Amino acid sequence: MRPYELGNADLDARLRQLVRDAVADQPRHGDHKHELDEEIIAEMLVSGLKMLRDDTDRGDLKLTNSALKEMRYSFLIFSKYKGIPKVTMYGSARTPPTDPNYQLAAEFARRMTDEESWMVITGAGPGIMEAGNLGAGQDYGFGVNIRLPFEAEANPYVHESRLINFKYFFTRKLMFVKESDAFVLFPGGFGTQDEAFELLTLIQTGKSDMHPIVLSRHQARATGTRGWSSSRSSKTRG
């Protein structure tokens, strides 16, 4: 396979040396693995330099830079909890604490953490997301927050050590899918339905492994509605 390089022997050699120097004082976990990791990092740097050579639009550079920063930080946070199964909970941001679905979501999260030793991932917002973090408690919950003009703050039940703030939906959605072993969807609006269909599409196309996907709602709220998604879904964002 042709090496992915800048095409300048001197620059490529200096780039590889820079990568080696940057991790020279880091512990090594197998020389072969370390060498492969260095090659991948070098290729990432090559991509960045090629974008500069390509005179890539500044807006595109900012997008790439922000996305890489978000992914790197997310990988770091979740890496501390490898081996612990995690469930992502989706649902409306508009569900109040008095709603039976809010209470059901909180109870589900509590039982998953207390009885099954799972951790819970939510979008860190209000509504069903808040219920999930409330039930999980600050020691067992994650919040992958999205910065929006009308929903900027994370709910108070996410510990800051497991709160990740995203600028872009696509990097946020990547973390939901990558880090979760199962998914539970409570009633919500366009956002919840978007997440549901993306999960199904990824599995159907073979881009994701098979995972349990559960649609959940309180029976008291199901009366008089048609299926899992009620008419209010077209009026709310969740």
Walk me through the structure.
29% of the residues are buried. Helices cover 47% and strands 11% of the residues. Mean pLDDT is 91; it is low at 223-237. The chain has 238 residues and is of the alpha/beta class. The chain is elongated. The protein has 2 domains: 9-79, no CATH class; 86-234, Rossmann fold (3-Layer(aba) Sandwich). It has helices spanning 9-22, 31-53, 58-79, 100-114, 128-136, 169-179, 190-204, 219-222, and strands spanning 86-90, 119-122, 141-146, 163-166, 182-185, 213-215. The chain is built from 8 helices and 6 strands; from the N terminus they run H-H-H-E-H-E-H-E-E-H-E-H-E-H. It has a 6-stranded parallel beta sheet, with helices on both faces.
Short description:
By secondary structure, this protein is of the alpha/beta class.
Give a topology summary.
Layout: H1 9-22, H2 31-53, H3 58-79, E1 86-90, H4 100-114, E2 119-122, H5 128-136, E3 141-146, E4 163-166, H6 169-179, E5 182-185, H7 190-204, E6 213-215, H8 219-222
Helix pairs in contact: 1-2, 3-6, 4-5
